[in-house]
Amino acid sequence: MLFVDYSSAFNTIIPSLLTTKLGDLGLHTSLCDWISNFLTERPQSVRVGNCASSTLTLSTGAPQGCVLSPLLYSLYTYDCTATSSSTIIVKFADNTVVMGLISDNGERAYLEEIKHLENWCQENNLLLNVSKTKDLIVDCSKKQERHYQPVRISGTTVERADSFRYLGVHISQDLSWSRHTNSLAKKARCD
Question: Which Pfam families match (predicted)?
């Protein structure tokens, strides 16, 4: 499993590309135009106390904290799909996981899927944050002595983890619940 992290995911949405995708999904032109107008030429400034910055006009991305932003991002990435029958891509807003079934040490489809994701991201103005992206191997074989190739994105090796917290759930390479339940118990004691 590759747990993907994007750098400023919501900020990188290109409104014209989003409206094209929305049109492809069959949304009415007037709704596509409304969304485009909503996302382009948005004034933004920062206020700290009584001090305010000068106003900047933004024409990319979705507004931070806007209830529509996760939905718009999900629609923007709807066409990021698996290309192999042995892989799937699971998405929840900007949380993405690439899962691949590796049998007989055949990692090729999994690694090709990751390369496909990397190319898709370049075409859609999304930047993969390799330092926060993690690879997790769940090996259900009896031997568990297989050696897997390291995952590389843009020439950088992705860190292999023995567990990862995804949407609040700790997933471990042995698929046990111990890490997750220990985390919950610790949190309950501290609260």
Answer: RVT_1
- Residue-wise DSSP of the chain: -EEE-EESTGGG--HHHHHHHHHHTT--HHHHHHHHHHHSSEEE--EETTEEPPPEEE-SS--TT-TTHHHHHHHHTTT----STTEEEEEETTEEEEEE---TT--HHHHHHHHHHHHHHHHTT-EE-TTT-EEE----SSS-----PPPEETTEEPEEESEEEETTEEEETT--SHHHHHHHHHHHHH-
Using one digit for the tens of pLDDT, what is the confidence trace for 1-60?
999 999 999 999 999 999 999 999 999 999 999 999 999 999 988 899 999 999 999 989
Domain enclosing residue 81, as ranges: 2-40+57-190
pTM reported for the whole predicted model: 0.83
> Which tens digits make up the pLDDT trace of 148-177?
888 999 999 998 988 888 887 788 887 777
Domain count, the chain: 1
- CA dist 188 and 55 (Å) reads 44
Has residue 124 been placed in a domain?
yes
**Residue at 47 is within a domain:** no
